[in-house]
Structure formats: structure tokens, C-alpha cells
Automatic annotation (TrEMBL):
Phylogenetic lineage: Bacteria, Pseudomonadati, Pseudomonadota, Gammaproteobacteria, Pseudomonadales
Iron listed as a keyword: yes
PROSITE patterns given in the database record: 2FE2S_FER_1, 2FE2S_FER_2
Domain 2Fe-2S ferredoxin-type: residue ranges: 1-77
Name of the protein this chain belongs to: (2Fe-2S)-binding protein
A GO molecular-function descriptor: 2 iron, 2 sulfur cluster binding
Keywords associated with the record: 2Fe-2S, Iron, Iron-sulfur, Metal-binding, Oxidoreductase
Listed InterPro entries: 2Fe-2S-bd, 2Fe-2S-bd_dom_sf, 2Fe-2S_ferredoxin-like_sf, 2Fe-2S_ferredoxin-type, 2Fe2S_fd_BS, Beta-grasp_dom_sf, Diverse_Oxidoreductases
Source organism: Stutzerimonas marianensis
Length: 150
């Protein structure tokens, strides 16, 4: 089945099984390796992308659910030579250790800052509560979001 999927501002016509979780299509069909497979159960947040501006766990829902929606992965914010201010804040605070969780953290934080440009520390922690970091760099991650909001 051919689906038209808008990702990072580009429409892609893809021949995929519509029941395939979005994460697999992003990574395997579109080569977007930012969203990560962590748990595959919607619990860790490593696969988070924005869908119409809201953070969504891309491992959970079938790709067919995202037709006529705007999907943005971490690659859609910026890149190494032209990072988004939030990505730059994560770099400046050296928020990444292994970095596996960071794309999901950034996309969740981006959704927070879009709806609340000056969040309190408690609001940042609440927004990122369900994003797991196995390295324990949460304090630096919170500082990065604070830096981006400043
Ligand atoms: Fe999707 Fe963990 S891989 S929430």
C-alpha cells in the first residue's frame, strides 16, 4: 500500500505495510536515525517525535495513523552545522552521555517550550518525567532546557 507521509516538511510516498509502527518507517524507509528504539512499549520516550506539534511515541502507532499529519523528528529541528537553539543548549550543557535518549528528550522539551516558553524547573521535570535516561544525566538535561528557555 502506498501512503503519503509528511515528515520534516517533505511529503514522502511510501510503499509500506500501513500497520508498521511509524518508528520503523522513519528509521528504515526514510533513514532518520534520530528517533530510537528503546522499549517498543511506549514507556521510555526514546522514539518520541512531534506530530502536529505534540510529542508522540512513534513505536506505538501504525504509520497509517500519521497520514495528513505533520511529523517532525529531531532531524527536522536542525543539524550539526546548523543546530536548533534547543539542540545547541543540549550541546552547551553537555547534556548527553551515551545520547541514546537525547532525541526523545529534545522533542519532548521542544513541545513543552512551544506551549510554555518559560517553564519552571518543576514544569520541565514534569514534562520529561516519562523520558528515561539510563545514564542519569537528568540534571544536565533540565539545565539544557532552562538554557534554551532563557
Ligand atoms: Fe517508544 Fe520506548 S521505544 S517509548
Amino acid at each position: 500500500m502506498t501512503l503519503a507521509l509528511e515528515v520534516n516538511g517533505q511529503v514522502h510516498k511510501l510503499t509500506v505495510d500501513p500497520s508498521t509502527p511509524l518508528l520503523y518507517v522513519l528509521r528504515n524507509e526514510l533513514g532518520l536515525k534520530g528517533p530510537k528504539f528503546g522499549c517498543g512499549l511506549g514507556e521510555c520516550g526514546a522514539c518520541t517525535v512531534l506530530v502536529d506539534g505534540a510529542p508522540v511515541r512513534s513505536c506505538l502507532l501504525p504509520t497509517a495513523s500519521f497520514v495528513d499529519r505533520q511529523v517532525v523528528s529531531v532531524e527536522g529541528l536542525g543539524n550539526a552545522s546548523d543546530p536548533h537553539p534547543l539542540q545547541q543548549a543540549f550541546i552547551d550543557e553537555q547534556a548527553a552521555q551515551c545520547a541514546y535518549c537525547i532525541p526523545g528528550m529534545i522533542m519532548t522539551a521542544q513541545a513543552l517550550l512551544a506551549r510554555n516558553p518559560q517553564p519552571s524547573e518543576a514544569q520541565i521535570k514534569q514534562a520529561l518525567l516519562a523520558n528515561f535516561c539510563g545514564c542519569g544525566t537528568h540534571l544536565r538535561i533540565v539545565r539544557a532546557v532552562q538554557r534554551a528557555a532563557a
